[in-house]
Amino acid sequence: MENQSNASEKRPQGGSNESGGLLNSTFLPPFSLKGWLFVLAGLVPALIVGWVVFPMVLYSSQQQPFNFSHVVHTNPDIGIEGETEQELCMYCHYFREDGTFVGIPGMDTCTMCHDDPEFPYGQTEDEKIFLEQYVAEGKEVPWLVYSDQPECVYFSHIAHVKMGGLTCGQCHGDHGRSETLPVYKENRLTGYSIDIWGRNIAGYSKNIKPAEAGMYETEDDEQYLRTIETEQGEETYHIKMSSMKMDDCAECHTIHHQEQNNACFVCHK
Amino acid sequence: MKATEGKYKYGMVINLDKCTGCGTCTVACAAENNLSVIRDETDKQRTISWMQLFKVTNGKPFPDTEVSYFPRPCMHCHNHTPCVSVCPPTATKMDYNNGIVSQIYTRCIGCRYCQAACPYQARYFNWWDGHFPKGTERYLSPEVSVRMRGVVEKCSFCHHRLMRAKEQAYAEDRRELEDGEYITACTEVCPAEAITFGDLNDPDSKVAKLSKHPQAFRLLERIGTEPKVYYISSKDWVRRMADNYHPNEFQPV
Amino acid sequence: MEINRRNFIQLLAGGAAGIHMTPLPWKLMDDIAIWTQNNWPWVPKPEKGRFDHEKSVCTLCPGGCGIEVRKVGDRAVKIEGRTDYPVNPGGICPLGAGGLQLLYDETIRFTSPMKRVGPRGAGQFTAISWSEALATLAERIGMLRKEGRPEALAAVDGNRRGNAEGTLIRRLLESVGSPNYFRMPSIEDTYTTANLLMQGNPGPMAYDLENADYILSVGPALIEGWGAPGRVIAAWGRWHESSNGNGPKVVQVESRASNTASKSDGWVAPRPGTEAALALGLAHVMIREKLVDLSFLSNYTHGFEDWTDEEGRNRKGFRSMVLDGYAPAEVEGITGVSADRIVAIGREFGKAKSPLALYGKGKGNLNGSLLECMAVQSLNALKGNINKPGGAVVQEGLPVASWADVSPDAVAARGLETGRLNGSGSPRLPLSESLVENLSRAVLESNGTPPVDTLLVFAANPVYTLPDGGAFGKALGKIPFIVSFSPFRDETAAMADLILPDHTNLEKLEDVVWPTGLQYPFLGLSRPVVRPLYKTRHSGDAVIALAGKIGDPVAAAFPWGGFEEALKERLRGLAESPGLTSWDESKPAWETFARGRSVSPDYDSFDDLWDQLESSGFWYRPTHAFYTWLSCFRTPSGKFEFASGRLEQAVKAAAGGDAGDGLRKMGVEAVGDQAYMPHYEQTLSGDGEEGLKLVPYELFNVSTDRLPNPPFLTKTLFDTQLRKDESFVKMNPATADRLGLEQGERIRIQSDAGEVKARVDRFEGAMPGYLYLPMGFGHTAYGIYQKGKGVNPMNLVAAGKDPLSGQSVWWSARVRVSKA
Prior knowledge:
The complex is a heterotrimer.
Chain A: H1 2-18, H2 33-58, E1 59-62, H3 70-73, H4 85-92, H5 107-110, H6 125-135, H7 157-163, H8 168-172, E2 184-187, H9 194-197, E3 208-210, H10 219-222, E4 225-230, E5 233-239, H11 246-255, H12 264-267
Antiparallel strand pairs in A: 1-2, 3-5, 4-5
Chain B: E1 10-15, H1 24-32, E2 52-57, E3 67-72, H2 82-86, E4 92-94, E5 101-103, H3 113-117, E6 124-125, E7 152-153, H4 159-171, H5 185-189, E8 195-199, H6 206-211, E9 216-217, E10 229-232, H7 236-240
Parallel strand pairs in B: 1-10
Antiparallel strand pairs in B: 1-8, 2-3, 4-5, 6-7, 9-10
Chain C: H1 5-20, H2 24-38, E1 51-57, E2 66-72, E3 75-81, H3 94-97, H4 100-104, E4 114-116, E5 125-127, H5 130-146, E6 153-157, H6 164-176, E7 181-183, H7 187-199, E8 205-207, E9 214-220, H8 229-239, E10 249-253, H9 259-263, E11 266-268, H10 275-288, H11 294-300, E12 301-302, E13 307-308, E14 314-315, H12 318-325, H13 328-335, H14 339-351, E15 355-362, H15 370-382, E16 392-394, H16 410-417, H17 436-445, E17 454-458, H18 462-465, H19 471-476, E18 481-484, H20 491-494, E19 498-499, E20 510-513, E21 522-526, H21 539-550, H22 563-575, H23 589-595, H24 606-616, E22 618-620, E23 640-641, H25 645-655, H26 659-665, E24 693-697, H27 711-714, E25 722-723, E26 726-731, H28 733-739, E27 746-750, E28 755-762, E29 770-774, E30 813-814, E31 816-819
Parallel strand pairs in C: 6-7, 6-17, 9-10, 9-15, 10-11, 12-23, 17-18, 18-19, 24-29, 26-28
Antiparallel strand pairs in C: 1-2, 2-3, 4-5, 4-19, 8-16, 13-14, 20-21, 21-22, 24-30, 25-26, 27-28, 27-31
Helix pairs in contact in C: 5-21, 6-21, 7-15, 10-13, 10-14, 10-15, 13-14, 25-26
């Protein structure tokens, strides 16, 4: 006991002898000002490296073959049919008869409208590239897929969208309302898109928040709200997945009382 | 450790009287599940075969000799699943909701403890990466991931076929599967229809009825692993092969 | 400013603390973990795509099972069975299931036409264009015609009897002017000849086994690849459905405890090659105990009782022959089967309602013994179980249309008059169409210019599959120009000078004619389900293009734009005949068949039929006119003949009056009346003393015929069949003890024809005194999974000739054994 109290008294004393003032704290080491400057000189660049340089080095930026506007293509005026936003999405991103999801549609879907390479619908350079280099050549567009999961992962869209009632946006965000395609950033180590881990470099996912009545009233946010019935009653959540990792899936399953779907083979193949 | 009973319990009954030992189940399984082919497939300590044929003979001299076969998938033990209880990184687990014992290759650390624990030798270690002579990668199915060297693998009851059947059902606005909608590749291909697969929890399913057949039995029943793979044989000498019986211990049906 | 050690550490500490306040270490740790799990660039990642199912018919064996190919995008990823196909409702065989390894393995296939550059057999080729390849061959054939020896063109063809491609090839030779078209041996040869001799029509053997109540299976690997495996094994499964248990009793006759023998209700093991004696022993029991259909025998058969011929001589009948010569005790001496067992089986067969005796040899890839086949068929006749439901049905061939006759020019006409090189069809061998073994002998024995200048090989690998001790391979060495149409780098192709590769399974349009043993007429249409992967060409198309390049009059015989057009013309015959192209899954075809009602066709024109054939993939006629015994036999007597009139005519023609001489020429030892009836003669290959004999046997889960074995099938093998590069020979422990051999010991097996090394597997189910060596191993060609794996028993078997047919005796050969 005695020794301990001695030691605790000794430290601040030693500190006050050399610098005193602000840094004379019980919890900080007894460095001189110069000492602290050196600590900072190490700390600050490290923070910069970690928060700014590292993400730049870790991810390579790649451009899509050409730009694609979801806004243009979800406009009911051009013949894309659908009552709801979801149905508009599913005009191209549809389920096949066997229940499998088409994903990024292939050329066969595109050419349902863009059947004549000589006949562009708009004036953009992107459409020209599309018609000349892909439709005319009969080649598939090598899209970079933001949500491409690892080879060991199985995911059933129909289970989530048709049976689970999730909206497209709850997992894919505002992608369907975008006019330009975001830069595709690929993790140089893992080879996967940044969108899997989340664009938030800290890696925090703010996927699911309890929503209270009146909290989200804009039309934009309505698609993210979801009411789940529990034994205690109804609970409303704001679901907007910012990353697509295993924990994110599990988090949402748990909220939905679908813990049985956290079994390994449900998502792994 | 008694398992919590889930809603479904998939299992299999193999009728050894019908089984001709042709090996089509083994081949169909290999084709369905992207099994690797090593350079020397005759090396039975290294080759991988989720559905392995075991040959037994009655030991009688010519011309009373008889042979019979045990096609052996993973037993998907329902109780105290030996592999699951020893796996350090939880790369293998039983899904209590359907009884299927999973194996996650990317999680496996290759310690082979599960292989040692499995009483049925149903687990296989990838000593090498699979060998795919030029062009043969074209027959690989995207429904099952291709394994790398250094991991253990085993029969999954064609779990991807369960997913496939569910997607089909969802597309048709159904949540429940009909009996026979989800069957494994070996069940489907067997030319003698010796294999029956389905939900043991559904009393009306074919497999549940057959599993109660008086001549039905399981391998090493006494160790209490409750395998979900049953066999049927009308021959006493074949049924006797299912366990290490003391003299006079085996009870003929 | 002075920087001391302490400051430096402070800098580092600050940096370390700072880094840990950023995502860098945590994210790196996570990413490295993912990297270790997923970055295996050499592990293939299967491409995703739309799933599809396409229906077709398997062409990997003559069984012709219905298959459904699962596809992802353009790739075929799995072969499954079809549930809407009458032959095999759902199941397929191991080879069918592993078929994609043959399609996609580039290392065992030819990817374009090739020209040989290395020495023969080395397998060194260089790619050439199709037009160059066809022009080279056309020029060579043109030259032969110019030289006036078109008969020096020969073809060895592995196509099924009566399919369109085989018929086209035969037509090519005919129009060029060569009679030297040879079909590879198969059990069909034995069936058609036996039917010709006893029933008068060379139709296919049609066993209605699903409706029989007792099956005596003499030789066929009933559930190991005989006939259409999907059909027989499906029936097998039904018979063993524990809930109904009303299947027939199946007794297998075979010398080894095969899967079929073990799984059957009874197993009778006669010495290999004595099956005819066993069958006649059973006949003896049935006749003696009056367990025969006397009314059938007296009304619709000839030669059962003793009879008087046109010249007034008394002739011995089948009854007296069997009663005199085949008493159970005597048969026991020949076959090794106890007299009691013979009596018991004879009684069972005789007392059954529709007992069916089936004949075969293993899978049926090779010929059987003609006399054995006739002896077995006579058991059906004794019970009157011919042309009845549950019996051996008398069938004509498929009602396909013939193409217009070839009109040979003078050169061709002269060439066609020359005798066939194998001697078949000659007085010595009047009953056989194709004896490829004799072709090799003719070439090997020739002096000076070899009788064959250019040899075409289609859909066959005779160097490997022929049971001739390697004679065919030696003969190839003397043939100046060899052309292989094989899609695979097989042993025969390795000897070829020119390769014109065919498409392989799933790439090819083919008519699959009448699966072996099926009771009703059936034609399957195998549609391509993937686009050809390489620069290969359908052999039918290649033949038509070749004829075009040779020029008239050969070109005139091939007026079609391609194989499909020729095939369509041939299939027009089906449209004029009643049949069905659809099947109600709830009514098995064999049930419909047994009812014998007529069917009204579900097509009204050929175009209609073709459309349906393309979508359903089959045409069949599940009906039959049963009990037409007054009209169905086309023998000289118009009856079922125990004593074959046609054979007697042939013998007379062969010997010009001296019947004994004629019979000897045909390899028949028996004299007198019994020579024209089914009787027993020893069949064995190799000279020398009585001693050990070798029996080559087929495994269902190994490709034993012309196709390479897919490595998935090797997974199903046991290491007492093949281990590393060594085959195992099964022998009874008593035999092994006598020879002083332990399990796994290495031995040398020698015969007159050659020598192989193998390891010993002591197996109780092997008949003492016989060695059982598996077929399908010991390739010297193909890829790493086939080459050098085990030994080929066919290298040990040679010389034995089956009486009457002249085909090889491959089921038993004398050998000597020594430790290696």
